[in-house]
Amino acid sequence: MLRRVNRIVLALVGLLLVVGGGAVLAAGLGLSVPSWWPWSGPDDVLLTRSQRQHWRAESWWWPTVIAVLGLVVLLALWWLIAQFRRARLAEVLVDSGDGEEAVLRGRALEAVLEADAAAQEGVARARVSLTGRRTAPRTRVALLLEPYAAPADALTTLAAEALGNARTSAGLPALPTEARLRAVKHRARRVN
């Protein structure tokens, strides 16, 4: 959901800036602009002296301006912090078989998946993060493969063993996974 919100907000802000900047540039260059546009030439100002001083005597004006600008800054900071927050799943609901549900810690499931994936032949390191909902978790797996490892074999083993064991032990009907594979950087072998 965060990606969708980011894309929508960035698209709206970008569109607003392009349209506004283009209209100001057109007016500054002396090109024709719509009749309703407040600036029609390069010598026009954003606010006239009377417009700037109109609300100055009102006691509510400056506190309102400061409050609105403060709110804009807080929203921008919240948005910035949200970019760095990973939407990790804290817990997974597991059907215990007696009509009750048990809670499995997300970090514990991640640790087991990482250990199983890293134990595979040809995998140097594995990173796992759980996302999604408590009742329908998803995983992101990043595998760092040794130079001799075959990516297809690594994916097949990951799906059959590590993810299969996790799905079975947690009683999940499905465990959608996004896997990213990279190879360990190594020097080229010298051939004589």
- Unreliable stretches (pLDDT < 50, length at least 5) are none
Q: List the helices and strands in order.
A: HHHEEHEEHE
* CATH T-level topology of the largest domain: Alpha-Beta Plaits
Please compute the radius of gyration using only Cα atoms: 28 Å
**Total DSSP helices:** 5
* Helical coverage, percent range: 40-55%
The CATH class name of the largest domain reads Alpha Beta
Can you offer a commentary on this structure?
The chain starts with a helix and ends in a 9-residue tail after the last strand. The protein is elongated. Strand 1 and strand 2 (101-105) form a beta hairpin. The chain has 192 residues and is of the alpha+beta class. Helix 4 packs antiparallel against helix 5. It has helices spanning 2-28, 49-53, 61-84, 106-118, 151-170; strands at 91-95, 101-105, 123-132, 137-145, 177-183. The longest helix is centred in the N-terminal third of the chain and has 27 residues, at 2-28.
